[in-house]
Specification:
alpha+beta, 5 strands, MaoC-like_dom
Length: 157
C-alpha cells in the first residue's frame, strides 16, 4: 500500500482568485524583546522604539513597535498559506501605511486579499499576483496595510 503524502506549499498562480480574503492564523503577540531585537538588528536607532523615558514624554506615552517589524510580520504570516515554494520573486510593495500604532503586548493578525492576477507576458508559465496585506491588532484596528506584487510559478505540467 502506498503511503499518502502531503507537502505544504503556497498556491500556484492558477489557484489565486481575485477578491478572495485569506486570514492568516495564529496571530502573533509582539513582545518588547521582539521589538528591541528587530530594531537593533536593522540599526534603527529611533528613540520611539528604544528609549522608554523619552517615549513616555511623547503623545503615545510609551515605546511603540517598529512599523517595519509589523510590515515584515504580516507579509511573513502570508507565506505558508500563499507563496511557500511557489513564489518566483517579490516584485515590490506600494501603498504602505500604518494607520494605528502597535504596542508591546499587542497581538497582530494578518490577512491578504487577492487584488489582481495576470499571466506574465515575458515569462511563460508564470504570473503576477497583486495582494493587499492588512494587519490588525487584537481590537480589530488596522495597524498596517501594504499592496504587494509577486511573481508566481504556474502549476507544473
Amino acid at each position: 500500500m502506498t503511503e499518502k503524502r502531503i507537502t505544504q506549499r503556497g498556491l500556484w498562480f492558477e489557484e489565486f482568485e481575485v477578491g478572495v480574503l485569506y486570514e492568516h492564523r495564529p496571530g502573533r503577540t509582539v513582545t518588547e524583546a521582539d521589538d528591541v531585537l528587530f530594531t537593533t538588528m536593522t540599526m534603527n536607532t529611533q528613540a520611539l522604539h528604544l528609549d522608554a523615558h523619552w517615549s513616555e514624554q511623547t503623545e503615545f506615552g510609551e515605546r511603540l513597535v517598529n512599523s517595519m517589524f509589523t510590515l515584515a510580520t504580516i507579509v511573513g504570516m502570508s507565506t505558508s498559506q500563499l507563496t511557500n515554494g511557489t513564489i518566483v520573486a517579490n516584485l515590490g510593495l506600494s501603498e504602505v501605511s500604518f494607520p494605528a500604532p502597535m504596542r508591546h503586548g499587542d497581538t497582530l493578525y494578518g490577512e491578504s486579499r487577492v487584488v489582481d492576477t495576470r499571466r506574465s507576458s515575458s515569462r511563460p508559465g508564470q504570473g503576477i499576483v497583486t495582494l493587499e496585506h492588512t494587519g490588525r491588532n487584537q481590537h480589530g484596528e488596522v495597524v498596517a496595510r501594504a499592496v504587494r506584487a509577486v511573481l508566481m510559478q504556474g502549476r507544473p505540467a
